[in-house]
């Protein structure tokens, strides 16, 4: 759905175009009707003047009715002068009214166009402010989320650090206790070994003493032995057996005691090691549960952020499609307007050419009719003068001879063009004064059709025209009534002049003079003040308005919107907590970002910003990828996002 501001601007533009076209059609129809009436009245006036001249140019009538003729001529001259002045006054008044009306229409149109331009500019500024406001709100929300995630990450890091410190403290205590216990056990074993060594030495000393005593006894009793050898042998054999048994029993007792101590010591060591292993196992289980909860929280947060980004992306894509649809409709409307304008110009040109041909044919027909009427009138005048001369010759035989050919000034006759006194024409029909009068009268009949030619509308141009005056200077526009008479141009010259004057209206590309004067734009570092369109010979930018030529707000192209979305996504990804690697051991816990989770089926995906996407993809996949500006890279990115989502799920 198109934006309501764009829709209102399009409807308003259509209404303005329809109103302007209706005003032009009304003005053309009214001008054509006024022109027809003016030509009809002017033609009737010319015919009446010709009839009056034909009636009053008879020499005989002027001679026999001189007083009546003088009075009539005086009244006619006064009436002609008064009518001429009244006509000039009315023409001047009508011209001034038309000029004032046209000037007022131009001023109103210019003011209306300026108001529309200001309104469009205000709408654009409002739209731009709205975009800026939305961008700021999104930026603030993202900043708040980033700050919140940063705080949560700090809290989690603090908890993790505290947990690690506790684990290290417990390990340190366990190691100290273990070392202390081992040291005590070693001391006990050393003490017991020393005691056992002392007992063995005592036994050895006792055996040596026994042997020495026995040796002494043998030496002392050697003689007795010899004497009592048989008796001693009999008595000594059981004693030796008992001694050997006693020594063996003592040795066995010492060995059994040592074995019991060894078994007891090994059992205590095994129990201590089992306790240490159980304690380490419990610590591992606690740490695994904590890491699992942290990973679950991070994955949930990551999924939530991805869902939010997906929703924002869908909303931005919908808005992008709507703006594209609006731009396409506006472009189609502009093309249709240009096509209709071109067809209208072609039709108008054809109508003008047909009207010019018709006017040329009518003018030639009128000239032929006027020439024929003039010849017939000259014939009738010549016949009438001939009859009058014959009659005067018959009647004036008894009268004194009249003066002929003498030019006497008559103050009742004035020239229509110069307002000078005319000399009195003599009675000779072929005199110089008579011929000059006939020539001027014939010229006046031809001049009566000068203003009958069609009047063309002035061009809608801001530049001053030599024929219509300057609009900015406020000078009165000269017309045919108060300007010197010039030669009547031919129909071909009229058509050529009209095409030269209105060539800007017939051309599609030349619309400089048709546009009203606009206010200068706000000066920016990118574009100077007053610059609305590209220079001549340079292709206009797509980021400029087609009506005003001003720069449009940014983010109007799919590429720029995709770039902004990638940048925003990269900024959000930089704030995400990193996932935990399963292969990290207890001794390799990191305080910074941990590597991503890796599984057997899906590779690890590195989270990075859009500015280092190329390097990140090269380090992850090992192959150089293109930038995200083509369809291929967009497709690759979509596949990677699907793989990332599948790996996280």
From TrEMBL:
Coiled coil keyword on record: yes
Keywords, alphabetical: Coiled coil
Positions of region (Disordered): 83-102, 117-175, 210-236, 295-315, 460-587
Cross-referenced InterPro entries: CFAP210 (IPR039986)
PANTHER family tied to this protein: CILIA- AND FLAGELLA- ASSOCIATED PROTEIN 210, COILED-COIL DOMAIN-CONTAINING PROTEIN 173
Biased composition (Basic and acidic residues): 302-315, 464-474, 490-506, 541-567
Sections of the chain in a coiled coil: 255-287, 353-394
Polar residues biased stretches: 480-489
UniProt protein name: Coiled-coil domain containing protein 173
């Amino acid at each position: 759905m198109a934006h309501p501001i764009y829709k209102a601007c399009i409807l308003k533009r259509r209404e303005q175009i329809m109103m302007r076209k209706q005003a032009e059609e009304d003005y053309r129809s009214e001008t054509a009707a006024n022109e027809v009436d003016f030509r009809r009245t002017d033609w009737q006036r010319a015919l009446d003047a010709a009839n009056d001249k034909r009636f009053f140019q008879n020499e005989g009538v002027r001679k026999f009715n001189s007083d009546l003729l003088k009075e009539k001529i005086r009244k006619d001259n006064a009436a002609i002068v008064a009518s001429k002045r009244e006509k000039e006054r009315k023409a001047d008044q009508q011209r001034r009214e038309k000029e004032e009306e046209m000037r007022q229409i131009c001023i109103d149109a210019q003011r209306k166009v300026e108001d529309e331009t200001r309104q469009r500019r205000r709408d654009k500024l409002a739209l731009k402010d709205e975009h800026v406001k939305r961008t700021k709100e999104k930026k603030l929300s993202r900043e708040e989320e980033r700050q919140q995630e940063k705080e949560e990450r700090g809290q989690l890091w603090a908890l993790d650090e505290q947990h690690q410190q506790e684990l290290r403290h417990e390990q340190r205590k366990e190691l100290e206790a273990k070392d202390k216990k081992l040291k005590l056990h070693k001391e006990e074993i050393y003490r017991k070994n020393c005691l056992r060594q002392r007992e063995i030495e005592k036994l050895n000393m006792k055996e040596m003493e026994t042997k020495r005593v026995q040796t002494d006894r043998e030496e002392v009793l050697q003689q007795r032995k010899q004497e009592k050898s048989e008796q001693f042998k009999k008595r000594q054999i059981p004693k030796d057996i008992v001694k050997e048994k006693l020594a063996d029993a003592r040795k066995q007792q010492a060995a059994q005691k040592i074995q019991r101590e060894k078994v007891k010591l090994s059992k205590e060591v095994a129990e201590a090691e089992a306790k240490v292993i159980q304690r380490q196992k419990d610590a591992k289980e606690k740490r695994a549960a904590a890491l699992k909860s942290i990973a679950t929280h991070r994955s949930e947060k990551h999924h939530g952020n991805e869902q939010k980004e997906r929703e924002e992306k869908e909303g931005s894509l919908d808005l992008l499609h709507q703006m594209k649809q609006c731009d396409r409709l506006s472009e189609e409307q502009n093309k249709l307007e240009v096509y209709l304008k071109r067809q209208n110009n072609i039709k108008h040109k054809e109508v003008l050419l047909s009207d010019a041909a018709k006017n040329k044919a009518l003018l030639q027909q009128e000239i032929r009719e006027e020439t024929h009427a003039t010849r017939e009138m000259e014939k009738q005048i010549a016949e009438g003068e001939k009859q009058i001369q014959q009659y005067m010759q018959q009647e004036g035989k008894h009268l004194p001879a009249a003066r002929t050919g003498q030019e006497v000034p008559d103050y009742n006759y004035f020239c229509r063009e110069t307002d000078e006194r005319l000399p009195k024409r003599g009675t000779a029909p072929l005199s110089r004064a008579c011929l000059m009068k006939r020539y001027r009268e014939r010229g006046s009949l031809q001049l009566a059709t000068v203003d009958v030619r069609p009047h063309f509308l002035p061009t809608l141009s801001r530049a001053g025209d030599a024929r219509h005056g300057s609009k900015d200077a406020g000078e009165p526009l000269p017309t045919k009534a108060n300007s010197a008479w010039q030669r009547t141009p031919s129909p071909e010259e009229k058509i050529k002049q009209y095409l030269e004057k209105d060539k800007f209206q017939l051309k599609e590309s030349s619309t400089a003079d048709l546009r009203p004067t606009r206010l200068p734009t706000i000066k920016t570092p990118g574009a100077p003040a007053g610059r609305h369109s590209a220079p001549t010979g340079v292709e206009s930018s797509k980021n400029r308005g087609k009506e005003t030529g001003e720069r449009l707000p940014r983010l109007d192209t799919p590429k720029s919107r995709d770039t902004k979305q990638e940048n925003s996504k990269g900024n959000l990804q930089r704030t995400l907590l990193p996932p935990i690697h399963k292969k990290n051991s207890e001794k390799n816990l990191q305080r910074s970002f941990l590597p991503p989770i890796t599984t057997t089926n899906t590779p690890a995906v590195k989270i990075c910003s859009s500015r280092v996407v190329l390097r990140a993809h090269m380090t992850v996949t090992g192959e150089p990828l293109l930038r995200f500006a083509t369809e291929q890279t967009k497709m690759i990115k979509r596949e990677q996002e699907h793989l990332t989502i599948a790996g996280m799920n």
